TrEMBL record:
TM segment ranges: 21-41, 515-535
Keyword NADP: no
Stated name of the protein: non-specific protein-tyrosine kinase
Native organism: Pontibacter korlensis
Pfam families in UniProt: AAA_31
Database matches in InterPro entries: AAA_dom, Bact_polysacc_biosynth/exp, P-loop_NTPase, Wzc-like_C
Keyword Transferase: yes
Stored Gene3D superfamilies: P-loop containing nucleotide triphosphate hydrolases
Length: 790
């Protein structure tokens, strides 16, 4: 557990070192992020939040006394659903009604004098009733909407108008509909204030407003908003929710940059909602009055005619009294006639309601069946259910399409409820028909009895009973009309505006400079950090000793410091350099590790070309020679010889000529400027280098060299390209495998790992070449030792 903790700590320090080495990325990214944050703070419009509260009642209408008097209105819903009311408030139709009451069609903007606007129009302020001009739209003609129309004031009387946009919609304000679009609009024109501008796409007039005169040349622009665009803008910022789960108080919130506009919108929206609610309630009372008035108009003529007929009959026949028996019979007859009339009236009313239901006219506000004395709880409940379903349907249609499953379900329930209402009304009509038939039968019996009475008396009784019945019915309807008028006069909405709209706080909700700058700084530091982490994870090259130890079990011998590429003989030319000290350390480590063996032949190889294999061979040989040992360096890479870059060699003789021509050893060994160091270059490039190295003469050469030199260093070809190393491997006492810092791919070590793990190669050690101490955490401490080197 302690080891894991230490490894984690070292890994964390390694990441911190990587971040520190790329400090300039963090500095540049932080500056750019803060600059972007500054531009955002300055260019973003200040958005404020506004809110108001609205109370939803229990949907009771009118005064308590009127409710007791007028049972006709008892079918009103005894409760509301808050979700439905929120849907109605949020609906496009309700928002549209509010906007039509306001003058938001033209939005005015000003390009400020901020220095950012010298590049482009970034810092823009919306104006409301403060613009130096006012746009008078000709709504009877088409207009180009939802695009900026630039205005540049030239002087007090003239201005320059410019438009540059693509796919511009043409809008008809009479029908509030888009009529096609224009692909490209690009023009500029100079006009005078008060001069109407008119073409086939626009028609308006700019008037100077009574505000402080702006400076000439100042840039403004305005946007003619379509009603649909305004509705979408307000709906996108509108939030409606109850203050509590069970509460009937709604909190309406919106956001905007102009306080006066948003306050006016919220107040107008609530006022329109309350007004619509009262209007719907008044429609019920008005329909009741219309029905009663129509009945009274019919009865008024009948009553007048019946009284005139009775008066004429009495005058012509001089009839003053009716005997008691006749009175009793006629009284019964009058009662039956009244009952039959009531039944006929009920049946007429049932049929009237049934016709309204079938035609679908005003179902949610239909007159209650109790106008004619109907007391049917089932029918009343069905009307309640239908009204609730219609209200729910209205709430869903604000945001749902016709194909919405919930909307289809509600539509099905509405149709089912309507069918039930029709069935109940049909049953009531049939019941009324049966009752009427029974009353007619009883009347017929009494009339047959009265037929025996004197003709004049019978006619008199008929006229009296008819007149009395019409009079009672007329008085009944007059009473009900008075009650309905009282209810309508005292009708009131149950919705109430609790708090008018006001701004919440004094600071913007979208632009908080301190938070934005802090967030920009965090992002500015996170981007380079993420980039470094990503590149480190993507980079599959050797990064250091720990990285090498994670992918191979081959022992590590040492590192070669980073130096100038032009200094090939670094050990010979500058013995106090960091590179010379690196090879000195490698020599000492090698002698320490091989102290128990009499090693002579040292092979140096790598994975691919460019890893510094030859550089390490030459400088390690130089270091050994400088330590007093006789060293010979063999260039066995006869495919791509590079010794000529290090030593002035005679390319006519070398290893290939010794193996093929049998030249004496003295002729192929060449002296160098360094004492104790000889070299054998590759010589003429052969056709088959691998075949030559397999010859017995190679073994003979090494045997002779071991007798004359302390060390034989063989610079072999890279094992990733050719197979010569595997031929020479059997002659070597020590194998040095060179990898280059931030160059050698980790996957390249798979082949040498396989040889080492299968024990086909022995006494092999890893060397990291060209390691820059400034770019690795593991050897960062060596940066402090640079004054030891020259």
């Amino acid at each position: 557990m302690k080891k894991n903790k230490q490894e984690h700590e070292i890994d964390l320090k390694s990441w911190l070192f990587k971040f520190k080495s790329k400090w300039y990325l963090f500095a540049v990214s932080a500056v750019l992020a803060l600059a972007a944050g500054y531009v955002y703070v300055k260019s973003s419009p200040r958005i404020f939040q506004f809110q108001s509260t609205l109370l939803l009642g229990d949907q009771q209408t009118g005064s308590k006394k009127a409710q007791e008097l007028l049972e006709v209105l008892d079918v009103q819903s005894r409760g509301i659903k808050v979700e439905d009311e929120i849907g109605l408030l949020y609906s496009a139709e309700m928002v549209k009604q509010a906007l039509q009451k306001l003058n938001f069609t033209v939005a005015y903007y000003k390009v400020t004098d901020h220095w950012l606007n010298k590049v482009t129009d970034l810092v823009v302020e919306e104006q409301y009733k403060t613009a130096p001009y006012e746009v008078e739209l000709d709504t009877s003609r088409l207009q180009l909407v939802d695009i900026p129309i630039k205005v540049r004031l030239l002087d007090k009387n003239t201005y320059e108008l410019a438009i540059e946009a693509e796919n511009v919609p043409r809008y008809d304000f009479r029908s509030n509909a888009t009529v096609g679009s224009i692909p490209v609009v690009n023009f500029k024109k100079t006009l005078r204030f008060g001069e109407a501008y008119q073409d086939e796409n626009m028609s308006f007039t700019l008037q100077r407003a009574d505000v402080e005169d702006p400076q000439p040349g100042k840039a403004y622009f305005f946007v003619i908003n379509s009603l649909e665009n305004l509705v979408k803008q307000q709906q996108s910022s509108l939030e409606i929710a109850p203050i509590d789960r069970e509460a009937r108080v709604l909190v309406l919130k919106t956001k905007g940059s102009i306080p006066d506009k948003q306050v006016a919108f919220l107040n107008t929206l609530m006022a329109e909602y309350v007004a619509n609610d009262l209007k719907e309630k008044n429609q019920n009372g008005l329909k009741t009055l219309e029905f009663i008035d129509s009945q009274l108009a019919t009865l008024s003529d009948s009553l007048r005619q019946s009284k005139q007929a009775l008066s004429s009959f009495r005058s012509n026949n001089r009839i003053a009294n009716i005997n008691v028996q006749s009175n009793i019979s006629y009284e019964k007859l009058s009662q039956l006639e009244a009952e039959r009339a009531r039944l006929n009236t009920d049946r007429t009313y049932y049929a009237n309601i049934l016709d309204q239901v079938k035609n679908g006219n005003g179902i949610a506000q239909s007159v209650s069946p109790t106008v004619a004395g109907i007391q049917s709880p089932i029918l009343n409940n069905l009307f309640l259910q239908l009204a609730e379903l219609n209200q729910k349907k209205a709430g869903y249609r604000t945001n749902a399409t016709e194909d919405n499953p919930m909307l289809r379900k509600i539509e099905s329930e509405i149709n089912s409820t309507r069918t039930s209402i029709e069935a109940n009304l049909q049953n009531l009509i049939e019941s009324a028909d049966i009752s009427i038939a029974n009353v007619n039968e009883r009347i017929g019996k009494i009339e047959s009895t009265l037929a025996s009475l004197p003709e004049n008396e019978r006619k008199l009784m008929d006229l009296q009973s008819q007149s009395e019945f019409i009079d009672k019915k007329y008085d009944f309807l007059l009473e009900k009309r008075a009650e309905a008028a009282i209810a309508l006069a005292t009708n009131a909405t149950d919705k109430k505006i609790v708090d008018q709209a006001s701004m919440v706080g004094t600071t913007p909700v979208n632009v908080k400079p301190k938070m934005i700058y802090l967030l920009a700084l965090i992002i500015g530091l996170a981007i380079p950090a993420g980039f470094i982490v990503l590149m480190s994870n993507v980079d599959n090259t050797i990064q250091g000793k720990n990285d090498l130890g994670n992918i191979t079990n081959i022992p590590f011998l040492g590192v070669v410091a980073h130096g100038s590429k032009s200094d090939k003989l670094a050990v010979m030319n500058n013995q106090r350099s960091a590179i010379a000290e690196s090879f000195r350390s490698i020599r000492i480590n090698l002698q320490y590790l091989m102290a128990d063996s009499n090693f002579k032949v040292i092979g140096v190889t790598s994975s691919i070309s460019g890893e510094g294999k030859t550089f390490c061979s030459v400088n390690l040989s130089s270091e050994m020679a400088m330590s007093g040992k006789r060293v010979v360096l063999i260039e066995s890479d006869m495919r791509k010889p590079t010794f000529s870059k290090y030593f002035p060699v005679a390319e006519s003789v070398g290893l290939s000529s010794f193996l093929t021509q049998g030249l004496p050893l003295e002729e192929v060994v060449q002296k160098t400027t360094m004492e104790n160091l000889d070299i054998i270059p590759c010589g003429p490039i052969p056709d088959n280098a691998l075949h030559l190295l397999e010859l017995p003469k190679m073994q003979q050469l090494l045997t002779m060299l071991k007798d004359q030199y302390d060390y034989v260093v063989i610079d072999t070809p890279p094992i990733g390209y050719v197979s010569e190393y595997f031929v020479l491997m059997r002659h070597m006492d020590v194998n040095l495998y060179v990898v280059k810092h931030k160059y050698t791919n980790k996957d390249m070590l798979a082949q040498i790992n396989e040889l080492y793990n299968s024990k086909k190669v022995k006494d092999i050690y890893m060397i990291i070449n060209d390691l820059n101490y400034d770019k690795t955490y593991e050897y960062g401490y060596k940066k402090k030792a640079k004054y030891y080197y020259v």
